DNA sequence: GAGACGTGGCG
DNA sequence: TCGCCAAGTCT
């Protein structure tokens, strides 16, 4: 790696973040949870609840995916007290489709701590925020800087990429992360740290993109060492990942004569924790059949394919009529035709339903 | 430190 | 079709 102590841009940190903030003042993307630089300059402050909610939703998730979820959440639960008072199942259903469901469970935990123990006020320091459920180093720094104007350093995938390129650092992630964090810290300004944090992330999201970075219009095109070296598109380096294995499984759709569905609430820990799903086999190389009750299970034909973070899944789907008077086992729920909403399911489970809905087994298919 | 943990878009 | 990638956290 280069001798970072002698990089000129570090000594020019003031000029650098001035260039970035000027760019941000003219190019900040509008988002429902964001106070524009102009409004911020007039003294308007962001609502910590909305900053927190948006940052949790944005963990490993794109702005485009988050926007409508954020609108629905804030419309339904305008304050942290409202959210803290919500039922678990309602929050999980509203989160369905957004992924990483541990975030939703921790969101509720955190809301209840803030509402019940902290008088409804989010802590305003990095250290105190870090103690809350679902808030890690990134989110604590983001809330502290954006909502409370603390000079904390955010380090997400965008900032890592920007720092690696600005300093032309070729050492692979994640090992080099502490170095990138240090470089990001040297650039964090005492004034407007919140706008600065959002500016670096906007830069990474719109200009300094993973592929085809738009170096020609970058506010940091002049000091950027990777642009000079021509290495920007290949940075940051990452240690190669293991290929994903493929697992198999069977999902069982049981429908009563009046159109109610048999579902299961999954355990809080593990994959799709706390979410509704169809009864099914285990997911592995050779799953044993595990129907929720004995019946003539009919194969729907076709299959559901879905890829999780660490494996591919191919699901076979079987169907049977739920006998009248079926006794619900622990964890099972019978949802009436009226109460069942496929959009409340995690995506893989919704795909299973969609396979049935488009099949000849659906009496209302063409209506 | 490394693996678990979702999903959708893009090239 | 497929691998990469996204405003990470928890264990």
Structure in words:
With 367 residues, this protein is of the alpha+beta class. The protein has two domains: 231 residues, Endonuclease III, domain 1, CATH 1.10.340.30; 112 residues, Nucleoside Triphosphate Pyrophosphohydrolase. The chain is built from 15 helices and seven strands. The strands form two sheets. Strands 1, 4, 5 and 6 form a four-stranded mixed β-sheet that branches. The chain has a three-stranded antiparallel β-sheet with strand order 3-2-7, with no helix packed on it. β5 and β6 form a beta hairpin. The N and C termini lie far apart (64 Å). 35% of the residues are buried. The N terminus is likely disordered. The structure holds a DNA duplex (11 and 11 nucleotides).
């Amino acid at each position: 790696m280069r001798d970072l102590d002698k990089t000129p841009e570090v000594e020019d940190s003031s000029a650098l973040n001035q260039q970035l903030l000027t760019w941000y003042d003219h190019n900040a993307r509008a988002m429902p949870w964001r106070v524009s630089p102009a409004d911020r300059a007039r003294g308007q402050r962001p609502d910590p609840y909305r900053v927190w909610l948006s940052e949790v939703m944005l963990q490993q998730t794109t702005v485009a995916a988050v926007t409508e979820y954020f609108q629905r959440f804030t419309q339904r639960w305008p304050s942290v007290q409202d959210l803290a008072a919500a039922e678990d199942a309602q929050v999980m259903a509203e989160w369905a489709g957004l992924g990483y469901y541990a975030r939703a469970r921790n969101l509720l935990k955190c809301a209840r701590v803030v509402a019940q123990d902290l008088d409804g006020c989010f802590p305003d320091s990095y250290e105190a925020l870090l103690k809350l459920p679902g808030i890690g180093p990134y989110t604590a720094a983001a809330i502290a800087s954006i909502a409370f104007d603390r000079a904390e350093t955010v380090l997400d995938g965008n900032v890592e990429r920007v720092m690696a390129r600005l300093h032309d650092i070729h050492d692979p992630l994640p090992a080099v992360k502490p170095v990138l964090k240090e470089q990001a810290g040297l650039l964090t300004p005492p004034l407007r740290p919140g706008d600065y944090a959002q500016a670096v992330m906007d830069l990474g999201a719109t200009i300094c993109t993973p592929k085809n970075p738009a170096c020609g219009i970058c506010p940091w095109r002049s000091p950027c060492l990777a642009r000079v070296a021509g290495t920007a598109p290949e940075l940051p380096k990452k240690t190669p990942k293991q290929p994903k294995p493929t697992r198999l499984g069977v999902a069982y759709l049981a429908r009563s004569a009046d159109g109610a569905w048999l579902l299961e609430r999954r355990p809080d820990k593990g994959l799709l924790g706390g979410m509704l799903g169809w009864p099914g086999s285990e997911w592995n190389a050779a799953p044993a059949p595990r129907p929720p009750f004995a019946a003539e299970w009919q194969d729907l034909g076709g299959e559901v394919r879905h890829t999780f973070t660490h494996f591919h899944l191919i699901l076979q789907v079987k169907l049977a009529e739920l006998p009248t008077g079926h006794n619900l086992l622990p964890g099972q729920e019978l949802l009436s035709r009226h109460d069942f909403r496929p959009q409340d399911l995690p995506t893989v489970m919704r795909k299973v339903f969609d396979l049935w809905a488009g099949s000849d087994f659906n009496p209302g298919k063409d209506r």
